[in-house]
Design brief:
single chain, about 180 residues, mainly alpha, two-stranded parallel ribbon, 2 strands, elongated
């Protein structure tokens, strides 16, 4: 007749019952954005959506010298603006905030000026898009410190947005610049 023996483990840890988190960070509701944090991220979101939309308007209507390079550069800017907008909106949802990317909301609250209608010369498009990139960066910088104080993770996203949009602004503006004499 076989006998069974029970082996005892030397592990004295308590059995797993799920993560022990603070009420503010519990697994069911997570960290919740304040109205101020939500509003600040919303400001960035609408500017990114508008940047992508205006970039597409420029992309379709740019004409002139260096058309192809400008056309392709606009594609990069548009793609980045869309990706950043999605990242911001998803971050807002992760923080239980409600992003609003409806066209009326964007038009009413963006800091970017309206983009001109019709064909536009490449040199003018470069200046217009550079200004809009700088405006979007300005919004990110305006809200950065308040966002960082409440949620450093969201501030890290703003850092990525600022870095890339400033790079695009430099690259776009360089197209119309002349070298400074030494």
């Amino acid at each position: 007749m076989a006998t069974s023996t029970t082996t005892s483990t030397k592990n004295k840890r308590k059995p797993a019952h799920g993560a022990r988190l603070t009420d503010e960070q519990n697994a069911e509701s997570g960290f919740t954005a304040t109205k101020a944090l939500s509003d600040n991220l919303q400001k960035v979101l609408v500017d990114l959506i508008e940047l992508a939309s205006q970039g597409k308007q420029a992309h379709w209507n740019v004409v002139g010298t260096n058309f192809r390079d400008t056309h392709l550069a606009l594609d990069e800017i548009i793609e980045s603006a869309r990706e950043f907008a999605d990242t911001i909106a998803e971050r807002m949802r992760a923080l239980h905030a409600l992003p609003d990317g409806r066209s009326d909301t964007v038009a009413e609250s963006t800091t970017l000026p309206e983009f001109p209608q019709g064909e536009i010369a490449t040199t003018e498009v470069i200046d217009l898009v550079t200004a809009r990139l700088e405006d979007a960066v300005g919004t990110c910088r305006d809200v950065h410190d308040a966002v960082d104080e409440e949620d450093p993770t969201s501030a890290d996203i703003l850092h990525a947005v600022i870095e890339k949009l400033e790079q695009y602004a430099w690259m776009m503006s360089a197209e119309n610049r002349t070298p400074k004499s030494a």
